[in-house]
Amino acid sequence: MSSDPRAVLTRPAPAPDLTVAYDHHPDQIADLRRPTGAGPARRLVIVVHGGFWRAEYDRRHTAPLATALAALGHPVAQVEYRRTGQPGGGWPGTLTDILTGVSELPRLAAEAFPDAVAAGPPVLIGHSAGGQLALYAAATMPTAVGGVLALAPVANLAEAYRLDLDTGAVGALLGGGPAEVPDRYAACDPRSLLPISSRIVVIHGALDRQVPVAMSREFAAAGCAAGSDVNLIELPTCEHFSLIDPESAAWPDVADALRSITRELPGS
Which segments constitute the BD-FAE-like domain (predicted)? Predict the structure, then answer.
């Protein structure tokens, strides 16, 4: 295993079994992976990648994660979406792409792998900015999301703007700060959207330098106080990128958390 946690971002992985379009833009697509080996049909797992919503980061850096999930027996979709720095990215395109993808991908995956995909809302795994998008989808379309595994999520956009995470990433996504575009923050900030009815497990490393663990601590506490089913797992020796690396020491915790979500869902 590489000593550089970022190595997972460029690590080669097997090609997906199929790439499908959930809408008409070239970035409104998803890579599908059939579960490895024989086994019962399971709910689709949709991986929502991070990268602070910026165009330079795409779904391909989650290919090792998606491959490992398929090896655990899950049908997997790595959803792509329009990002800041490209036409249609930012407000509202990035957000609407996620809603459309989450709505359409269970059907598209079931058509591609009819013996592998069980009926029912998918489980979303979102990392970093992808965690914000997964939580947003769960809050906005509660019946379309079976559960969320949020890995180091940007769970408070107003706080992320105040902290200037990734040098203006939130302002680039929403077109300004909370004082300038308050309605946009109210519409998609996970912290503002509590309570969220889907089951949520948050995993965050205490050594994270990209997204502070305090954000997940506060989000989980607020979620529980609001009546949401939110469980925070804090990993004391983990940083930001190990959460999407199946070769890291954090991987067993990620796999166990996914099992804890899916075992409560029929057809999983």
Answer: 31-221
